[in-house]
Amino acid sequence: MSPANPNAPAEGAASGRSSRDARILIADDEPLTRKLLAAILQAQHFSNLRFAENGQETLDLMQSFQPDLLLLDMQMPDIGGLDVCRAVRLRDEFIDIPILVQTATVNRREMGDLFRAGASDYLSKPINPAELVARVVVHLERHNMLRELRNYRERISSELEAARQMQADLLPTLAGQRAVAETAGLRIASYSRSSSEIGGDLWGLLPLDDGRFGVFLADFTGHGVTAALNTFRLHALVHEYRSLHGDPAGLLSMLNDRLVRLLPPGQFATFLYVIVDSKAGEVRFATAGAPPPIMTSESKDSARSFEASGVPLGIARGMIYEEHIHPFAEDMRLLLFSDGLPEFTNGKDDRIGEAGLVTKLESIPQAIAPRELIDSICLAAGINDGVAMPDDTTIICIDRRAHCSIPCIIKTGLNSGFDVACRVPAQEEVRCRSA
Amino acid sequence: MEFRLDNGGVQISGEFTFTDHASFKTMIDSLLKDGSPSVTMDLGQLQFIDSAGLGMLLLARDAFGKADRKLVLRAPSGQVKRMFGLTKFDTLFSVED
Prior knowledge:
The complex is a heterodimer. Chain A is built from ten helices and 19 strands. Chain A is of the alpha+beta class. Chain A folds into two domains: 11-158, Rossmann fold, CATH 3.40.50.2300; 171-403, PPM-type phosphatase domain (Phosphatase 2c, domain 1, 4-Layer Sandwich). A five-stranded parallel β-sheet of chain A has the order 4-3-5-6-7, with helices on both faces. In chain A, helix 1 links the parallel strand 3 (24-27) and strand 4 (49-52). In chain A, helix 2 packs parallel to helix 3 and helix 9 (353-363) crosses helix 10. Chain B is of the alpha/beta class. Helices cover 43% and strands 34% of the residues of chain B. Chain B is built from four helices and five strands, in the order E-E-H-E-H-E-H-H-E. In chain B, helix 1 runs parallel beside helix 2 (51-66). The two termini of chain B are 21 Å apart. The relative contact order of chain B is 0.19.
């Protein structure tokens, strides 16, 4: 931007629209001054000019002409320049329009009044043509750039919103989760939150035959747009290899070889794939560096992590993954989560960590529903609705106790040692609903 | 994350997360300028690493490989050792106890 040379063409480069096309309103009660200002501007090829002879006409033309810049005289017969300034600034659409005031005063106090009333700049009378053009050009360019920046931000934020919606659409719907859960005779609850509009976590349900289904949870390094775009790639890949949905280790090897070719060095995805087979009472799973899922057992009154390891997807070609089998009896539930949960930190308190999650799960009453289990875990990790998320976080709870066989009543209250208690009135009885 | 360079190696301490990208890269660049064929990164004092930190270690490994040099990771412990185990990073790097 070079306002120093008023003879240079004043292209509003950022807007792609010439400053010379700008609408300029000249407000002055002196016919001779109006003519003079117009002549100077027209000589510089500003042709989109309108004129107001008094304050009221200025305000009317602001509305009908919608100028890009107002050249305003301080002394007009009906409404003074300061009042016109204030009235213009009151309107949202003119909050940042350049208002150049022509004034004969050099009194510092009056100058202060002028800026307080909303003037952007001033021109001393008698008007110097080069100064007039230079100031008009610099303010128009600045205004154009601001407008451009605002439009850009609005566009980006609406595109991010559309992307956020598209990403949300990749995840299983509540109805989809319910359908899979009913077929398999169990309960499913989930939680997912990104650190910004869009994120690098993805999970999904893959219905198989005979009430069996697969559940996967992926987490790409980093977060934001790059990580989010990778979740779309992975979603497509997972669905491309339908024939491997019954083979956890095979699916991981195939996804790995595809992602090695797609991801730049230093980027990878942790991935966990679990096949839940209620009839056989077991889960089969393979992991590519994902946080180990935690299994709880009501009869044993215990919680423990599945110890399994694997190189994350996308790092090295030809990786072989192991399949693990674990009993998944009727009294068990399974908690899957991305590292955003154990690693959550508000910058002050310690992270809950994997060990902390296991301990927490051991202390949570077995009868609690999957949704409440997730709430309770979040609370224990320090995650609540208002808190800023440093990383994308996904939690899935699969509970085989579809129908509570034993009628279970949880006494909640101060002595229950049950965190969810703070969410219900003390001493209220919460009956475990059967599904 | 803090690091201390000492005779051909580096000691990393604190927490190694996505916020350390720039300083880690600078440190790797300065280690690459040094001529020794093998560089040891001592992780004994490192308390925490996240997946972004693991990604940066992979980038460092590649940079050393390209320069025909060897990067050795030493003494990961606690959560760092656990992450190395879960992700089998100990098979991707030379790791010493």
